[in-house]
Amino acid sequence: MKRWQILILIFTPIFFAILFGAIYSGNVVNEIPTAILDQDQSKLSRNLARMFDDSERFDVAAEFSTEEDLRDSIDSGRVKIAIEIPKHFSRDIRQGIGSEVLIVVNSANNMFSNPAISSSQEITRTFSAMLGKSQIRLGTRILGNPVNGYSSFMLSGLILNGAQIGLMISFAAFFFDESRSNGRIRDLPWKILPYWIFSLTGFMIAIWISTKLFAIPMHGSWIDIAKIGGGFLYFVMGALSLFSILSPQREMCLQAPMIYIMPGLLFSGLSFPRFDMNSFGAIFSAILPITYAGESIRDAMLMGLSPEISSMILGGSIPLAISILVFWRRVQCSRENFETV
Amino acid sequence: MFAREFRNCLKDPRRFIFIFGASIVYLFLFGMLYQPNIVQKIPTVIFDEDQSKLSREITQKFFDSDAFEIVDYARDESEMLESIQMKRSLAAIQIPKHFARDRSSILYLVNGSNIIVTNVTSSATLEILSNFEEEILNQTELIHLRSRILYNPTQGYTKFFLIGLAMVAFQQGLIFAIGAASFDEGSIFKKIFFYWILSMLSFAIIIFAIENFAEIELRASMIQVMILGGIFSLSVLSFGSLFATLFKTEIDFIRASILYPVPAFILSGYTFPIESMPSSMQILAKFFPITYFSNDMRDLFLIGDSSNFLEDVSILTIMSAIFLIGNQISLRIRVKKSEITSRDDGISLL
């Protein structure tokens, strides 16, 4: 094992933790550029406009006087959200008829639209309550990630992704090289083990960094985190071994697994939930290592839930066993050929 | 010139696969993944302590909603929490005792580890309660919030994500292909030109596939999209070939380039907006060509125009020019080095 391989195994997950931790340090999507069209220009409508302005979620960047200007500002991308308060807003509310506030959202990026709509609903409900309107009160309790932040949501998954990319870079050609250099089967475990140990070390340091530098909560035990990391890396190594032993070219050992490893983050259920996937998505996701580790590690960190790692052990053992078998067969053949010559 | 490059591609068909296959495979994979399009039917537990007519009517509203799927009815609070802890449910609705009499608070509880689930359930809960007040309690809403969601009205994942993912795969395919070609003999500029032609053909196929298979209508003109795609391809190919000069073998180049796509995609602001990143990360994002491409592509498809189009095309043009000049300088350095090496070899032979 070369020094650069050790460095890659340790530092790739750490690099991912620091880079993505820094990217998501804002944690939530706030200060969304917003325009307001207040057609009523009454005290009440200005109060409502101020509530939007005071909210952290919105940054009221412009106020317009016509609907065309408002639409232009959305279409040109200058603002992402437009709030339209109609004429006679104040009068209709005082008369008890009720009024309608329109929120126009540029939803090309869902990251803007989801929080903007939720916050608008909360603001209008609060405003109605302030006007003395009796309503069903709603208590909200968000477990695990109370601020609904992006760091807690994504960082642990991205660290897993960093760890598997580190393994791809340093371990992917291992079986290819060994089978061509007529390595001995009994040496394999001792040669493979250091990859797993260094990779797990990098992964654990990266998780530790995420908790210390980026304040990701750690409600679970570190032993559980090590179990998930260890099982996951074993599964990834098993899968990479199979790609490696079956690759016709050395370069393919790295390139072929990209179609399997890279989509993993999105198929794992970390963002788009598994219960909404169709059968294709569910089957593809079931053969990916990150599916079994992504949600487990997030649940362990945020909710303190205990993991289940037997599927990862099984998932790693099957391809690893096949790879060793192919390796053994290949070495046997090459010895027989050599003896014949 | 083209015949030689074409022969090289036939000898190493991976290059055709990278250029034409990578993005199509991603389109297929993620097109299938995001076919359900929106997040709904979120497993939910109901704990109705009141068991009144009113509380049952509220429960029915949650039952009828597409956002929730009621999978559990808890008899007490511990059962409700257990359902969340065991992940049988991701959300919980608790209707307190004497709710019909006192109108006390309803509790909405959610496993917040997936923010998409939190966003969908919190919005749906607020909407259900507003409608309930209006329909059942006959309370005219003082302020009714009406939303008009432009460009992606269902807030579907396909429109949001698919275009960007196809473009990331397109970019990686170009980098691998030009990287493989860079280790062959011959002029790098001719190679860039050859692969640029192939990339334009591939890009047109991707646009066709997005429109016809993923069924995302292209609202901008094809010329605008091809201009952006053309200049992006040139910048990526020239960047890829320049990057390849740093490595002795193709496998070392592949190892290094594997690290590139995930950080570049996330830094591009395609999902988490650039405006919400700290300024150091915003500066870092400016160095990647995909930052000037992926968001524009989504805007061209969904909105029909992009406010940054001219600026981004100009930046990509400047980037391409810098990378091409970098290739030229690197070529000269290599020629000089090989001259010095051959001169030294000659001296040692003498």
Written description of the protein model:
The complex is a heterodimer of chains A (about 350) and B (about 350). By secondary structure, chain A is of the alpha/beta class. Chain A has helices at about 5-25, 45-55, 65-75, 90-95, 110-130, 150-170, 175-180, 190-215, 220-245, 250-255, 260, 265, 280-285, 290-305, 310-340; strands at about 30-40, 60-65, 80-85, 100-105, 140-145. Chain A has a 4-stranded mixed β-sheet, sandwiched between helices. The longest helix of chain A is centred in the last third of the chain and has 31 residues, at about 310-340. Chain A is elongated. In chain B, helix 2 (about 15-35) runs antiparallel to helix 7 (about 155-180) and helix 7 packs across helix 9. In chain B, strands 2-1-3-4 form a 4-stranded mixed β-sheet, sandwiched between helices. Chain B is built from 14 helices and 5 strands. Chain B has helices at about 1-10, 15-35, 55-65, 75-85, 100, 115-135, 155-180, 190-210, 220-245, 250-260, 260-265, 280-285, 295-300, 310-350, and strands at about 40-50, 70-75, 90-95, 105-110, 145-150. The mean pLDDT of chain B is about 90. The interface between A and B is large, with 108 and 101 residues. Strand 5 of chain A pairs parallel with strand 4 (about 105-110) of chain B, so a sheet runs across the interface.
**Most extensive interface: pair and counts?**
A-B, 108 and 101 residues
Structural class category of chain B: alpha/beta
SS summary, helix count of chain B: 14
Radius of gyration of chain B: 28 Å
* Shape designation of chain B: elongated
* Span between termini of chain A: 32 Å
Strand arrangement across the biggest beta sheet of chain B = 2-1-3-4
Listing every helix as H and every strand as E from the N terminus to the C terminus, the arrangement of chain A reads: HEHEHEHEHEHHHHHHHHHH
- Global geometry of chain A: elongated
- Write down the overall mean pLDDT of chain A: 87
The level of helicity of chain A is 55-70%
Rg of chain A over CA atoms, rounded to whole Å, is: 27 Å
- Biggest sheet architecture of chain B: 4 strands, mixed
Strand content of chain B: 5-15%
Biggest sheet overview of chain A: 4 strands, mixed
Number of strands of chain B: 5
| Low-confidence segments of chain B | none
